[in-house]
Structure formats: C-alpha cells, structure tokens
Amino acid sequence: MKPGVVFGEDYAALVEACKNGGYALPAVNVVGTNSLNAVMEAAGKNKSDVIIQFSNSGAQFYAGKGMEDGFRAKVLGAVAAAKHTQLLAEHYGICVVLHTDHANRSLVPWVDALVEESRQNIKREGVPLYSSHMLDLSEEPISDNLETCARVLKDMTPLGMSLEIELGVTGGEEDGVGADVGDDFENPSLYTQPEDVLQAYDLLTPLGHFSVAASFGNVHGVYKPGNVKLRPEILRASQEMVMRERSTANNPLHFVFHGGSGSEKAKIEEAVGYGVFKMNIDTDTQFAFSEAVGGYVAENSDAFKWQVHPETGTPFKKQYDPRVWLRKAEQSVVTRLDEAFVDLGSRGKSIAQA
Ligand SMILES: [Zn+2]
Questions:
Q1: 295 falls within a domain
Q2: Where are the beta strands (DSSP E) in the chain?
Q3: 271 is a domain residue
Q4: Residues, beta carbon < 5 Å, ion ligand 1
Q5: How far is the CA of 220 from the centre of ligand 1 (A)?
Q6: Which SS3 state, helix, strand or coil, does residue 163 take?
Q7: Mind listing the pLDDT tens digit for each residue in 297-314?
Q8: Residue 189 pLDDT more than 90?
Q9: Which residues are catalytic?
Q10: Is position 312 within any domain?
Q11: For residue 256, how far is its CA from the centre of ligand 1 (angstroms)?
Q12: Which of 18, 53, 261, 332 has CB 3.0 to 4.6 Å from 99, enough for a Cys bridge?
C-alpha cells in the first residue's frame, strides 16, 4: 500500500492486516503539530502504521483556543489537522489512519459537520478528510445508540469512511465524555453484553465498515495498580456469539481498546488475540510530553526567568527558544511510543510500500 493516510478499502485492508497478523495499532490523541509530528516520527522510526486521533477539544485546540466560535473551531481545527497530516504522512513512509475520538449526543453535530467537510474535500481533492469517526452514545438506550450510528454510517459509507461505536460504558473520563465507575467493577452493566454486540452487527454490517469500542474493565486515565481489572474474555464472548449465530469466520468484529494507558502487557496481548486492532493512548503520551518539558525547565530554570542573566550577563536565547524544549517533548513522546509499538506487536509490520 502507498504510504500516507488510508481510507475506504485501504483502511479495511489495514484493519484485516492487523487482525490476521495478530497485532494492533496505537491510536494516539494529539492536540497540535508537535504531538502530531512526533507520532508520525515514531511510526516511521518503528516501521509501524499508526492511528492519529483528535478529541473535540483537541481539534478546537488545534484551531486555537482564542477563536470565538468554539463549535466552528472544533470543525476547522479537525479540518486543518487532517490537511496537515495528509500532506506530510507519506513522507514518513507509513500508513496513517485519521480518526476523531468520543462524540456523545451533544457532539453528533460536530461529526455531521466533519462528514460534510469530507464530502466537500472529495469534490476538491478526491479523498475524504478522515478515515473514521467515533460516536459514543453508550450512555443511551441501545436502540437510540444504534439508530444514530446507523444513520451516520449510511452518510459515511459512500465517502469511504468507517465508524467506531461504543457499547458498554468505558470507565473514567476522556475530555468530559465518559462515566465514573468508582469501585463498581463487579457491575455487569459496565461490561459490553454479547447480545448488544450481535444487535449492532446485524444492523450495521449491511450499512458499511464499523468497529466497536467495548467495555471489558478498561478505564480512561491511570489509576493505582490493581484498581483496573481487565477481562478480555468479554471480547471473546462477543466474537463467539456472532460467529455462532451468524456462521462467520473467526473474530468477525473489529474491537477497539479504550483506556489502554497503564494496562498489563499480558492482558493487552490477550485482547489483541480477540480482535482488538486499535488501542487508544492519551494519558501516557501526555505525561511523556510534559515530563520532558518539566525536566528541561528544572535544569534550565534561569533561562525561563531572564533573557540575559542579570549578574553574569549570560544570554539564554539558545535555552528558551521554544523549539529546544518542544523538541525534547517530541522526542519523549517518540520514546514512549517505541514501547507501545512493541507492546502491541506492530513494530516492523507497516504494510506501506513506497
Ligand atoms: Zn476512550
């Protein structure tokens, strides 16, 4: 496959390559060109394909927090980020999936606006802007959730785009979307039910390509060790139900693992074996970025107080140049992602060929 952002059948082929190859791709939340370029750099370095994603507020940040119309900024930021990535991705020599993260009911208009932007982009450039979008209506009754997912997927399929849906509630919070599970890990309603997955499969399969963010004890954010009890067998139960009831091949569903930061490696591997092709990473790369900046500021604190030292007269321009400490942040993100590509088994598996 040609390096660059993938859509439609190429995207579907990449998902199949992951599942058949027994690996998953990190899906990294980014907020600007520094984190975005660092993800492409890490993917190129590791010869892995990668998923780059924006939350609604990440997209708004990309456009600029000072833009008065916040909704417009969420749309324009996502458009600008997609154009930036489409221009540069091929030069990193890997395939990139462009995706938007959690959108609850209040953010359905954001996704609709982005789908319309893709429709316009196809007229101009021949390709949509995003490979896929996510709708997270998991807090609603399943009929409402799936009805809206079906409507949006019908809009996206002719444009060559895929939809990620959420069934069952992922614990923790991602940019204000999500639920607080507290200590309620025994509550079965927090785990995705195979019957719900079968219902989604039956409704959405004829309409287009989709993936499922399933709840199997995963939680957004990082918590004390032992507080997160992952149960990948929940994923297997759903795969088996669809295989049995609809006579499909092995692992018919494409699963997405949210809240992957801080997970045990063995549980990640097990989840990948049950059809997980995408694992979201946000918290750990946020920390990697900030940790590097914090370390640099601590070591060069004078350069963050004065342009020239008031007593010694030493100029600090070379230390406070934002490119210096932003580059430290980028390199730190690359180092954290080196680990993610190994954990997910995607290192060296890029299907891109120049
Ligand atoms: Zn999530």
A1: no
A2: 4-5, 25-29, 50-54, 95-100, 132-135, 162-167, 210-214, 255-257, 276-281
A3: yes
A4: 174, 258
A5: 6
A6: strand
A7: 999 999 999 999 999 999
A8: no
A9: 101
A10: no
A11: 9
A12: 53
